[in-house]
Amino acid sequence: MAESTSESKPTSELKLQPADPPVPLPPSAADVEIDRANLSFQTTAEVDPLDRIIGQDRAMEALDVGLGIDQEGYNIYVAGLTGTGKMQTIRRSLQDRLARSGVPSDWVYVHNFDEPDEPWAIELPAGRGREFQRSMDRLVERLKEILPKAFRQEDFSQEKERLGEKYNDRFQTEMQRLADLAKERGFEMRPAPDGNLLFIPLIDGKVPENEEDFQKLSDDDRRRIEEGQKELAREAGRMMQEHRDLMRELGEEVREVEKRFGATVIQPLLEALKRHYRGIPRVGEYLDRVSRHMLENLASFRRAGQPQPPIPLPLPFLAGTEEEFLEYRVNVVVDHSQSTTAPIIVEESPTYRNLFGSIEKVVDRSGRLVTNFTRIKSGAGLRASGGYLVFNLEDALTEPLVYKMLKRTLKSGQILFDTYDPLS
After folding, report:
1. Burial per residue of 157-195, b for 16 or more beta-carbon CB atoms within 10 angstroms, e otherwise
2. How far apart are CA 413 and CA 410, in angstroms?
3. N or C: less crowded end of the chain, CB within 10 Å?
4. Are strands 106-110 and 120-124 parallel, antiparallel or unpaired?
5. Residue 291's pLDDT is what?
6. Would you call 362 exposed, middle or buried from its count of C-beta atoms within 10 A (0-12, 13-18, 19+)?
7. Cβ proximity of 381 and 390 under 8 Å
8. What is the CA radius of gyration of the chain?
């Protein structure tokens, strides 16, 4: 084998050589000559903008094929040099494909009366989510105005008075029966200042004036008086228990009267709403539960508008006032009232909150950290449902928790809301 006789010079002996001096170009050498005879237009205003990346025909064909696959589990990954117009090309391709698409549904959250920690998600036709929210707000405001007036009507007051008189007559009858029994046993019944009943023994048909009159009695008479007092005390205890039962029955009947009067106001308004949303069974089911809950909690409407007690030590970060009638609120998480096609959401900042949403927490009047279904905030993933979501994958993967949640969402096809805490 022949050996090479050349030897490489040490790096330290290599030296940079000076460049040739620059040669100035005349203007004529920097000009480009264009044969206008080869152009089919007079000005560029007559030319349609180029909507494809130059030299990327295969990439555009692959993008068209990918967009044409309407199956779960298929997503599109686009890579290329910065500044080649990838984002504009993707957006334009999506707009062309969705130009004649339908508008997807709205989504709202409402209170779950059986499981408050698991609110109902209701799907409504596009634009009707915000409409349903306004309808429920108007319903509550209307009831706050007219229900207190209904309870002040003469018919309602007369019904309550009739019930009160009925139970008072029953109580007075029992009191008279106890007084007659005491008289038969040789006692006089008197009410005590603390509300109890006193049974004073009668001596020769009269109330004894002092203790000495009682001490003059024989042992048999004193024993008879003590036994009589015990018997009357037991009877009085039984009667007071019956009185408490009567008061409980009176309260239940008064509540039934209130429900009956309240139903005459609430039911017509809710039935009108059910007819308006009769094509959405879930809304009708929710309104039925709203009706039952309202009739069971009429007192809240009677207290509506009353001032709340001031906070002893008000803090600036506390939630202002307690949210009234939270159970009847509607939280619109996806709103397509202004959409004309399926959505194209381009998320420039693909953080966990922005992609998947979150559940906000607030500090209530007592200083506790609380939340509810109205604090659910949707992310770009949910808002893009029925359309397309575009984001920079490299930016997303550098955000905490995004990759794990992204895989889970793509596999399950569901977005699970949670309070965002990257340090938990």
Report:
1. eebbeebeeebeeebeebbeebbebbeebebebeeeeee
2. 5
3. N
4. antiparallel
5. 94
6. middle
7. no
8. 42
CA atoms of 33 and 72, how far apart (whole Å):
53
State the Cα–Cα distance between residues 392 and 351, nearest whole angstrom. Answer: 11
CA 121 to CA 385: how far, in whole Å? Answer: 14
Q: Find out whether 393 and 77 touch, Cβ atoms under 8 Å.
A: yes
Q: Which long-range contacts (CB under 8 A, 24 or more apart) does 118-125 make?
A: 119/331, 119/373, 119/376, 120/282, 120/286, 122/280, 122/282, 122/283, 122/286, 123/280, 123/282, 124/277, 124/280, 124/283, 125/280
Contact 121, 357 (CB under 8 A): no
Strand partners, 91: none
Please indicate, yes or no, whether the overall pTM of this predicted structure exceeds 0.85: no
> HEC string of 30-67?
HCCCCCHHHCCCCCHHHCCCCCCCCCCHHHHHHHHHHH
Q: Which residues contact 63 (CB under 8 A, 6 or more apart)?
A: 76, 78, 89, 90, 93
Contact call for residues 298 and 267 (beta carbons, < 8 A): no
Which tokens is 293 given?
Answer: 């809950």
Q: How far apart are CA 83 and CA 325, in angstroms?
A: 53
pLDDT score for 64: 85
